[in-house]
Hints:
This protein is α+β, with helices and mostly antiparallel strands. Helix content is 47%, strand content 16%.
Amino acid sequence: xxxxxxxxxxxxxxxxxxxxxxxxxxxxxxxxxxxxxxxxxxxxxxxxxxxxxxxxxxxxxxxxxxxxxxxxxxxxxxxxxxxxxxxxxxxxxxxxxxxxxxxxxxxxxxxxxxxxxxxxxxxxxxxxxxxxxxxxxxxxxxxxxxxxxxxxxxxxxxxxxxxxxxxxxxxxxxxxxxxxxxxxxxxxxxxxxxxxxx
Length: 198
């Protein structure tokens, strides 16, 4: 061995360490797994079933939301209907207050009583107004069969035909719906005189 020289392996060039640090190594490419055809079909079937379940769930959620809205609307309608019934029962009380105020002659002995009754009447009107009840506007307006009930007719030339001349009994609305129509006197034009030729 002394006479023999050891064969030296050629040196490999040293890798550039800067490049290694700059570019991280890419992860190994995933291996493509072989999936049997039956298993692949089963996976597709499950994906389709999941899609159907998702659609059913979304449909059910939408139905539940619609049902919740419907119950809320029905509950509100019930409350409004109950209030409407109560307010309808107050209308004769308002009528009686109105008649009492109109029938009492004002003099010194009845002045304070009349004033007190008037205050109570106005207070009751305000409470009912806050609850959504309002008086049907009629006098001086065109006759509206949806809001007015004609109980008298007067022939006149002072205003256009079918104008409300006087309110006989007040009408009331509750949140835009008619509780009771106003009973009114309506104008009619004088009939045109027919000319006869002789």
